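=== RUN LOG ===
request id: a7f3
mode: sequence -> structure
chains: 1
length: 121
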Amino acid sequence: MLVSARKPSGPGWTDCGSELMTALKVFETFMEAQTPVAEGEAVPTKPFVYISAADAFRPVVPSRYIESKREAEFGILRKSADRPELGIRPLFMRPGKSFPPLLRVGSGIPPPLRRGNSGIP
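=== RESULT ===
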């Protein structure tokens, strides 16, 4: 299951607390869908991927947004550790930047304009 909270909007991104609660609720729902393994049996590993955020773009990205992402990561780890018989392995992805589909990674120039600039040294 892949979890990605939507990007907060508005001045100051004041809804970071709701992003945290949403992430934890989705993880709890994932946990409820798992079947506990009986004692003595091998516990299969089930990955849970949470898309977090890298702490790379302050002050553009408010610190509270990054802090709420870290709180969600900690909450997911804690809840996972409380139920080891479920075999959930949290994975946290911390992308530094998301690129729209028309842009190539590492380039701020849209593809149609890149073709015209290809001969410029």
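=== NOTES ===
The CA atoms of residues 7 and 101 lie 17 Å apart.
Residues 1-8 have pLDDT under 50 and may be disordered.
=== END ===
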